[in-house]
Every structure is written in structure tokens, then in C-alpha cells.
Amino acid sequence: MATRSEPLIVVDADACPVKREIVQVARTLAVEVLMIASFDHRLEAEPGVRVVQVDRSDQSVDLYIANHVGKGDIVITQDFGLAVVVLAKGATALSPRGQEYDERNIDFLMERRHELAKRRRSGGKTRGPKAMTDEDRYRFQQKLTKVLLHRQEIGEP
């Protein structure tokens, strides 16, 4: 995506648990949303929300986002690897729980992911993520709103 005067919210939508919350915040602040999902997930376009469906291969959604995200966009993803790519392109990356990925925390998160993957490959057990709570959803909405309002205040894309 080319640099725009207005940010675009780009969603790694396959397993995103806060799609409804993203649309609510985007509508309130008049920001366009682009949801990317594989054909295995049925999403419907609606006013202010574009949907792009890609093939079901392992990295198709991530590759589409990496190739189309632009400076100033806000990407919602649980994937640390994708977060690294979008940060390098000048975009903001948020988790569905409202954590902002940035240069202060992304190296630690990537290292932790690598260590847990090594443990699983060697037969060790790891825990999955905790179930989303209403508090998590609220925290996410607050963080997304804060990021968007800050950009509008300073006139940054």
C-alpha cells in the first residue's frame, strides 16, 4: 500500500478474536479496515471494511500483509514474525490483547517464541494462550483508540 494521509487498520484475520472490536473503533474514528484471511475463514465485507481472501497455505496471509502494508498503517496480529516485518515498514503492530510490539519488546518476544518452539520439538510441553476475557477486549479497544487518536492529533499517517 502506498503512503496515505489516513491510517489503514490491517487485520491478520484468520484467528483474530477482536474483529468486532476493531470494526467498532474504526467506525467511531472513520478509519478504513482491511481484513486478510484464508479461504478457510468466511468473512463478509461491510461499510468501511474490505476483505481480501488468500489461499490456505501456511504463510499466505502474512505474505499478503507484508507486501501491502505501508508506513502509518496499524496491523493487528498475534504473529511476532509478521510484527517484525511491519515494524520495519513503518507500520504499528498491536496484539489482539492490546500489546504494542516495538523495538523495546520484539526481540524478547521472538527469542521467547524460538525457545518455546525448541522445547516443543524436543518433546516438552508448553501452554497455549489464555482465553480472551472481556477485560482483554476492552484493553485492546482502548489501545487501538489511543493509537488512532494520537496519530490524528499529531497529523501523522
TrEMBL record:
What Pfam families does the database record attribute to this sequence?
A: DUF188 (PF02639)
Q: Where is the composition biased (Basic residues)?
A: 117-128
Q: Where is this region: Disordered?
A: 117-136
Q: Record's InterPro entries?
A: UPF0178 (IPR003791)
Q: Which HAMAP family match?
A: UPF0178 (MF_00489)
Q: What family is reported?
A: Belongs to the UPF0178 family.
The protein's name in its UniProt record: UPF0178 protein ACFOZ8_30495
Which organism is this entry from?
Paenibacillus xanthanilyticus
UniProt lineage = Bacteria, Bacillati, Bacillota, Bacilli, Bacillales
